[in-house]
Amino acid sequence: MSAERADAVTAASANDLAPGHPFIRPYRPGDRDAVFEICLRTAAGGGDATGVYSDDSLMPEVFALPYVTYDPDLAFVVDDGRDGRALGYIIGVADTRTFVEWWKREWTPGFRERHPSPGASTGREPGFTEAQLIDAGTNPDRMLIAEVDAYPAHLHIDLLPELQGQGLGRRLIDTLREALAARGVPAVHLGMDAANTAARAFYDRLGFHELPSSRPDAPLLGIATDRGTTDRPATDPRATDRRSDADEVSA
Question: What is the pTM (predicted TM-score) of this model?
Answer without folding.
Answer: 0.85
